[in-house]
Amino acid sequence: MKMALDRPLTAACLFALALTFSAGLRAQNSSSSLPDAPEPPVPAPVTLAHAPIDILKEQGAIWTSPARIRDRDLPLLLSLGLATTVAITADHQAMSSAKLDNTSLNNHSVTASNGLLGGLVAAPVAIYGMGHIHHDAHATETGILAGEAMVNSLIVDEVLKAATMRERPTVDGAKGKFFQTSVGLDSSFPSTHCIIAWSSASVIASEYPSPLVQISAYTLATGVSLTRVLGKQHFPSDVLVGSAVGWMVGRYVFHKHHRELD
After folding, report:
1. Which long-range contacts (CB under 8 A, 24 or more apart) does 32-36 make?
2. pLDDT of 92-147, one tens digit each?
3. The whole model's pTM is what?
4. Deepest of 44, 117, 213, 221, by most Cβ within 10 A of its Cβ?
5. Residue 193's closest CA among 239, 147, 148?
6. How many whole angstroms from its chain centre is CA 174?
7. Contact 215, 204 (CB under 8 A)
8. In a domain, 196, yes or no
């Protein structure tokens, strides 16, 4: 009976967190500036030396984003809330499926997710390196902003993990209970792989908006999301929220700093 009462309350808290966070980032993307810190018409050049300061400022904007929710964000919020509700409700059934009870599939999926994430982490480094060698400001900007997005996403991920303390699918029959102190910092919610992968992919796809680049980047990120579930490392809701937050952080960092370059 206690679990029956706890689950709706837990879900409601998580929905509110995800929704207000997404609303704030979306609002900042569409707004011209923060109330007390107007942005210049043209963003300053993106440099490695200034990246730590930028990350600190971005963290402040991310965690205060609920104060900038707008009415036009409601359709997105309702859609994300509904999807998260359905995912959490179906988590136990999905992870208890006999189709996922396959050690070979699980192991190969974990290997695949690690490889795909490695590619999305290495890509910004390679792009930055090539840009530095060839004096390509667009490429160096892409590498730096993707790195900033991944760092920002990882910080958000660790805070959410510490706050939710959700059991992994392999624990206690995949009940996915939240607020379990025994979990420590190894919370299942959200997926670290997904939040990092999608933050990198969203910056790269935004910087190079050609169909080929976008399809490639988002296909790799989607592969990370799917294989985390197939590997029984995360529940579908962990992957959904991690992917959404990673994408939004990446888009926020891009819109915050991107400069139109020749």
Report:
1. 34/61, 34/68
2. 999 999 889 999 999 999 999 999 999 999 999 999 999 999 999 999 999 999 99
3. 0.84
4. 221
5. 239
6. 23
7. no
8. yes
Report residue 92 as tokens: 């136990």
Residue type, 47: T
Beta-ladder partners of 37: 34
DSSP string of 168-228? PTTSGGG---SS-GGGTT---SS-HHHHHHHHHHHHHHHHS--HHHHHHHHHHHHHHHHHH
Q: Show the domain range for 76.
A: 2-257
Provide CB contacts within 8 A for 127, sequence distance 6+: 139, 142, 143, 146, 204
Domain count, the chain: 1
**Within a domain: residue 97?**
yes
Whether residue 185 is predicted with pLDDT greater than 50 in this model: the reply is yes
Sign of the dihedral defined by the CA atoms of residues 178, 183, 188, 193, in that order: positive
Phi first, then psi, for residue 127 (nearest 5°) are: -65, -45
For residue 153, tell me if it sits in a domain. yes
Q: How far apart are CA 98 and CA 96, in angstroms?
A: 6
262 lies in some domain = no
H or E stretch covering 4: helix 2-30
pLDDT at 66: 76
User: By C-alpha distance, which of 197, 184, 191 is closest to 169?
Assistant: 191
Burial of 1 (0-12, 13-18, 19+ CB in 10 A): exposed
Which tokens sit at 56? 């600190």
Report the interhelical angle of 236-257 vs 74-95 (nearest 10°): 150
